[in-house]
Batch of 2 targets.
Target 1
Amino acid sequence: MKSAFEAAEQYFAEAASVLDLSSSMRTLLMTPEREIKVQVPVKLDNGEIATFVGYRMQHNSARGPMKGGLRYHHEVNADEVLALASLMTWKTAVVDIPFGGAKGGISVNTKELSIDELERLTRRFVDELHDLFGPDKDIPAPDMGTNAQTMAWIMNQYEKFHGFSPACVTGKPVELYGAEGREEATGRGVGALTLATLRRCRRPIEASTIAIQGFGNVGTFTAAYLEKAGTRIVAISDVSGGVLNRSGIDVSAALDWVRSAGSLTGFSGGERISNDEILALDVDVLIPAALGGVLTHENAKDVRAKMIVEAANGPVTPEADAIFRQREIPVLPDILANAGGVTVSYFEWVQNQQYFRWDLRRVREELEKSLTRGFDRVWATAEEKKVPLRTAAYLLAIGRVGRAEILGGI
Ligand code: NAD
């Protein structure tokens, strides 16, 4: 299986060929502006010192300050962070928000640290990087293993060096300069774009069946949005396995169950299925919303969904993508499908810069407007150039970043 970075390079290369991009422009766009690897030592509660490795990959700033999440996970490595940083460059460009792309992370198992240790880890990471962060330079956000509390620590530590600066980070608690609607934004965006895809494929919303792998932040808000829109959520899953109910799962009952029991294990709203089985269900839309690399050359032939919406980052490997193209199963690519989160992060940054707060209704309206505009452009490009949706999204994104590079000059 290709690494995350090789996959990102392949999708870039495909679109670059359609655009007939010069090799010098290809090199400029694929070379990260800055790769940072730092030592992050932390004094543990027992007095010992533990040393971790942190990364920040600043991929491209041609269209604006760099933007991207900060991941705390024991498998974080330079290759993966770099791949995710380049995805952020194309993601911000495809929905046309004025940011570039970056990503960061610390290789750490958060379950092994206390809350105080996590706070010290985060503050020390900011001590190392604060000169490279900033509202007009590089703006972190939550990702796997980090949350609104982590962002509050980052803001507080950054301000010790640079003074009051709420726009230095997004995904903050709503009480501390965060935006209404940030938590739901990615799932809501996935839901809205799934409906848009169904409409374009001339499938009736009411009769459509949906399977969602992953019932965390993205999966739950996606499920709730699509259930309310009238589709039938026939299967959901989390790390503990899945549940299938052909007459429709009661999403709020499943949510209540997971809130109290911690996982879908024991939920009685359907029959148990495995995480492999959910990927092969005969449904209208399959939404992988958990991990990357779940649809591969080995299981792509078993997929019976009529379309796939990539809510997670990179759930379809390039080999599986080729099989879906051959089988004419449309795949709505991650850089568009899950761009709702970064879009509302942009709204948070705008509000922080203006010291002005939008209400939830405004956030939702602006989000749908922004994503629908991006979707319509991608769809039109796919039709015009006769390319898959993923290539179309990359064509638009690379075109925008490339033009910014040329207009700005070096
Ligand atoms: P989360 O941690 O809230 O939820 C992850 C879910 O996946 C959980 O239900 C977990 O049980 C499940 N899961 C974990 N391992 C699994 C496995 N092996 N099989 C099946 N399910 C498994 O994470 P999230 O924020 O919902 O993010 C999900 C995906 O979406 C990630 O790929 C993330 O990078 C991507 N994403 C998230 C956002 C966001 O704003 N949260 C934005 C863009 C992309």
Target 2
Amino acid sequence: MKIAVLPGDGIGPEIVAQAVKVLNVLNLDLQMEEAPIGGAGYEAAGDPLPDTTLALAKAADAVLLGAVGDWKYDALPRDKRPERGLLRIRKELNLFANLRPALLYAELASASTLKPEVVSGLDLMIVRELTGDIYFGQPRGISTLENGEREGINTMRYNESEIRRIGHVAFRIAMKRNRKVCSVDKANVLEATELWRQVMIEVARDYPQVELSHMYVDNAAMQLVRAPKQFDVMVTGNIFGDILSDEASMLTGSIGMLPSASLDADNKGMYEPSHGSAPDIAGKDIANPLATILSAAMMLRYTFNDENNAARIEDAVKKTLAQGYRTADIHTDGCRKVRCSEMGDAVVAALRG
Ligand code: IPM
Ligand code: MG
């Protein structure tokens, strides 16, 4: 089992180190090799996705990624910026299905900014399309009009097959859960998402046991904070999924808890926390490594079909939380505040014990 380890920028290296530590305890036959991406790729090779990094990722069965981005690269041309490395690797590996579970651990109900009764028991899976939409649509760019004024252009586009394949992913996941899919669009205004809705209705015919509902994205944003437990699987496009998954992550207490999987059609995947590189706290050993550790669990589940060890990691995380260990982002009174590396050690100890 070959894993390309891409720590990236900011807190990326610290959190990835904890996930690697956890994987190493399992005594699996894992070959892990590291390479730079994002700002680190730019520093090493003048490219946020160096050729050698892409080759390593392509040759691997799975990719474990930290995070990319740092304000110090904001002035670079767009194609040299860290984010471009992330978008390119998603596209190059055809990782069109992004799974972002929002699961509230009972111990963290009080860390959420929402009332415990609104969020306790929350178990929601956001399925975000990841290689299409306004993120990649052409034409795009900033140009100058005849009157000298500048204009920025991006294009929201989805073709039928792109919608259909992510629809099937969502319905298959729903079959293993509570058999409800809510498709989120803006079909009242945007034709690209009117087609999205039509195709979702077609896909649903293959899954008569699953209940399909539709919701406009503005309403979905509101419902997520009003009554998030009404959702089981939410499927949506790239840009809406980007926004709604950040919102959903806060329901769980901290974005530092949310793992993600980005899969291709053969379950090859890239696994990364849903949060960013947090350059403001980089190098301080205070970040929350749990989202990355939980991403490693998703890797075992989805790419390596190892449900047993995936569940072992998740149970170890639960045990660690039950023991009162908290990084700063999820810390509440009476709990034990620990550093990033100490949290990693606590999960390792829970796995051993
Ligand atoms: C995410 C991030 C990325 C995205 C950025 C860093 C390009 O916000 O994975 O959600 O917009 O997809
Ligand atoms: Mg995002």
